[in-house]
Amino acid sequence: MKLQLLKCHGSSNNFILIDEYEKILFSEEERVTLSKSLCETEQVDGILFFQNSKVADGKMRMFNPDGSEAEMCGNGLRCIGRFACETLDKTSVLIETLKSVSTVSKDKNIYKTIETYQAELKNVLLNTKNIPILLKSETLINQPLSALSSNLDFTAVSMPNPHIVSIVDKVSDSELIEVGEKANALPMLFPNGVNVNFCQILDEGVIFVRTYERGVGLTKSCGSGMSASSMVYCLLGYSAFGKTIDVYNQGGLVRCKPVVTAFHQYSVFLSGNATFVFKSIKDEQIKICENIFVNEIQDYGQLLEYSENMLEGLV
Fold it and tell me: Among 223, 237, 276, 296, which has the minimal tally of Cβ within 10 Å of its Cβ?
């Protein structure tokens, strides 16, 4: 089978996007096998499948390198949203995910000429009954988890994929990996695994986030992780809900706006790049590159340089 691939990324979170909008190409078993092989050969963080939907303009399914399917992927959602907008000739689309329907809209550029889209991450929950974690209390808000760390406090957030967030004085990759590996080796505590986020406050309304992602490991960025971290940043009183937060990561910069309604329902508006890298056709072991998006690659390189300069000496 000749397979058309689109490599894209959100905040250097790299994906292969496969268009199944007109026709479903794979069985569930084939999807798992393909995701494992493509993530390895194409050196990406996940596979995005764009499908038709009965309740929205399109549907996103995202598979990790280990073949598991994620409930949500904020960086991937922006990429799918851009692809859907351009395919369907719209500036705003509704995208169905495993747990909800999200609006993705073209947004003002986050930096110079970079294609930017905003995704609303809905159904954000603090109730730990919805985030697979076995605790006596219904919520985990800035509390210790002795099984993971003797000196860190954590807040649990469902995006709706499960996250725990710790506000730290300084992000340590080695400590994050240690905590992430522990958390995902404790099925009695996290039966479905969990994404672990360290959040370092850089300035008022400015944070730096690193994520250990279940099924992936340490990543340059994680859209739902950055959204969860901005949510916790507001929840713990560092900023008011409804304000935009600059979130730096090792893959660039996004902007998050956590909001809460009068009925204590939470959402996060995640805005950032949705960059196309190349289109190719793969047939067995042969890959033919059809188009390289040179300008987009170069433009994002400028944003990376800008974010690295902003972070120099701070993290």
Answer: 237
Q: Which CATH class is domain 124-271?
A: alpha beta
Alpha-carbon distance values, 96 to 55, 186, 254 (Å) = 7, 31, 22
Residue 157 dihedral angles phi and psi, to the nearest 5°:
-135, 135
What mean pLDDT is predicted for residues 102-110? Answer: 97
DSSP label at residue 192 = T
Of 8, 39, 73, 199, the active-site residue reads 73
pLDDT tens column, 169-218: 999 999 999 999 999 999 888 988 999 999 999 999 999 999 999 988 99
> Which of 39, 79, 222, 256 is labelled catalytic?
222
Q: Name the segment(s) of the chain with CATH classification 3.10.310.10.
A: 2-122+273-311, 124-271
Domain boundaries 2-122+273-311, corresponding CATH code: 3.10.310.10
Tell me if 127 sits within 8 A of 133, measured CB to CB.
no
How far CA 226 is from CA of 120, 142, 162, 199, 247, in Å, comes to 13, 17, 13, 8, 7
Question: Residue 27: pLDDT band by 50, 70, 90 thresholds?
Answer: very high
Q: Indicate if 73 belongs to the active site.
A: yes
Identify whether 222 is a catalytic site residue: yes
